[in-house]
Amino acid sequence: MSRYLVRRVLLAIPTLLVISFVLFAVLSLAPGDPLAQFAANPSVPPEVRDNIRRSLGLDDPWPVRYVKWLFALSHGDWGFSFGSRIPVWDLIKLRVPSTLAVVGVAYLLSLTLALPIGIFSALKQYTLFDHIATTFAFIGFSVPTFFTGLLLIIFLSVKLNWLPFIYDSTLQVRDLGSMGQQIKQSIMPILVLGLFQTATLVRYTRASMLENLPQDYVRTARAKGLAETNVINRHVVRNSLIPVVTLIALSAPAVFSGAIITEQIFRVPGIGSLLITSIQNNDIPVIMAITFTFSFLVVVFNMIADVMYGVLDPRIRYD
Amino acid sequence: MATGITAQELIRPATVADAALRRPSRSLWSDAWRQFRRHRLAMFGVVVFSALLLATLAGPFIYRTSSDAIDYSQGLLGPSLQHPFGTDDLGRDLLARVLLGGRVSMAVGVVAVLIAITLGTTVGAVAGFFGGRTDSLLMRITDVFLALPVLPLLLMVTYLFRDPLKRVFGPELGIFLLIVGVIGALNWMALARLVRAGFLSIKQKEFVEAARCVGASNRRLMANHILPNTLSAVIVAATVGVGQAIITESALSFLGLGFPPDMPTWGRLLYDAQNFLDLGPHWAIFPGLMIFLIVLSINYIGDGLRDALDPRKTQ
User: Fold this and answer.
1) What is the distance between the alpha carbons of residues B136 and B142, in angstroms, rounded to a whole number?
2) Burial of A282 (0-12, 13-18, 19+ CB in 10 A)
3) Tens digit of pLDDT for each residue in A176-230?
4) I need a surface site. Which of A208, A268, B107, B279 has the fewest CB within 10 A?
5) Residues A55-72 as b or e (16 or more Cβ within 10 Å = b)
6) Is A142 in contact with B152 (Cβ distance < 8 A)?
């Protein structure tokens, strides 16, 4: 097991290196000029622009810049943002809490909803509950998050005037009132993200349960006189959740990507909106840091999924 | 179900042979079609999808209202007889814009999936057929692609590379090629793995060996003998992929990084509508409903195809 882990980590390093190289190359070969905003400004003479360019290290050919970037990163230095002149890491640190709060709660919400719904709907296959659950899951899986978001705004904010539709990041939670406001403004972003995730998980859980229910070991458990609740809880659910757990780990990075769209709808000042503004301003160090962090998350969660699969299912042997 | 499958496997060869003797007209495809027709929701999907496809293809010829005639006195009107879907802030007719935009959205979906399928099938087929070094190299590349952050990368590439492509191909075709190419290039990996798995198991079968013995070339073995047996996976992946590609394009346009404003794709319409949710909610609802309906119908079709093409299902 530990040898497998070491091998996986050793394999992940070249993968991340290749990815960072590809990302860096794409960014550097893109025709945009990070200093375009200065070029349009007549009060900045060309010499000054060249000086700025040199101070940002844009004079070197891009492979050299890549090596420098990588070297700095190995010391934990993400570089400086071109746009705001503060370290990229500080910029990201400002944005992470909003994203994590929304993504984390949505993720937990979808887990607590999806697992019981999926399990129950498989146990009561073809009943009214099952039909409603599968239809809901299918619809939730087919509506794009940006449309759900706009619909929620139209009904809950515009028509009913229950919830604010713009996320106010300056809000400080001090007392019950501001806490209520914080909850109110988080409801819609969390719902949008959670709904999509719930729908996917319900489908998967139900399918996995249905695959396990008619198996021989279930009949054996029933035949030896075990109570039905024990058969379901101890045998069927435990075995069915093995692939579901992997899916939960695998979909974590996708939830972060989904947050990009959700943040844009509700103007949540998180990582996703930082990424979009940086792309629009050609702020290469920030784009690089965020996209690389996303890839890092994908690689790490893939690893977690594989390892968990082995831990949960003793039939799977490494090596 | 476990017993069902074993019993079925026992009797299957005889039944299939008998059926072939008695009813020569039944093929794999007609069987699949019979099975598919029984899937009610899938048939519902086919009807909705064909209706929408027909509407976007023929609609602009029948519904002659201009999609870009500006009339400020008619701005932000709700649905009426004159403007069934209402108008936007400049008084342009939304039904005409939705029909026009649907063409682009669907074209993006189909072309992007064609690219993804060609890439995925080729990589999967070559990796599975030749094995060894080729296989491990191609699978390492697939792994790297799987770890790429798709949405951020899409945003980045479409925004940063739009200008040179615009210059070469013109503003509309340039962005179309860019979006289609990037969506295709970032969505072939799952299919490549499926096709590879299919190739790995099928290339061991006797009929492949037999074909090799009579002198079939590698290319012929791959294209004529093995590939048709993995086709069901490809078809299902392609169907669902069209819906996903439409969502991706809409998401890009919704974030303001997709098509330019004069190309009213469904996502672009939503992007423009989001600042008028209070005054003109119909502006967002109709294009959004279109995306939802098209994706829902495609997903139902995919579900039906998966059941119909699954050889383990009883006919």
Assistant:
1) 10
2) buried
3) 777 777 788 888 888 888 888 899 899 989 999 998 999 999 999 999 999 999 9
4) B279
5) ebebeeeeeebbeebeee
6) no
Chain A residue with CA closest to B254: the answer is A146
pLDDT digits (tens, 9 = 90+) for B57-107: 887 787 777 777 777 777 667 777 777 777 777 768 778 888 888 888 899
CB contact under 8 A, A138 and B300: yes
Assess contact for B247 and B187: CB atoms under 8 A.
no
- Provide the 10 A C-beta neighbour count for residue B191: 25
The complex's ipTM works out to: 0.82
Neighbours of B291 (CB within 10 A): 28
Chain A stretch 179-198, residues whose beta carbon is closer than 8 A to a beta carbon of chain B: none
Q: Whole-model pTM above 0.90? A: no
A158·B278 Cβ contact <8 A:
yes
Contacts 24+ apart (CB under 8 A), A68-77: A69/A24, A69/A288, A70/A17, A70/A20
Closest CB to A298 among B149, B161, B251:
B149
Exposed, middle or buried by CB within 10 Å (0-12, 13-18, 19+), for A310? middle
pLDDT at B209 > cutoff 50: yes
Residue whose tokens read 């590698």: B218
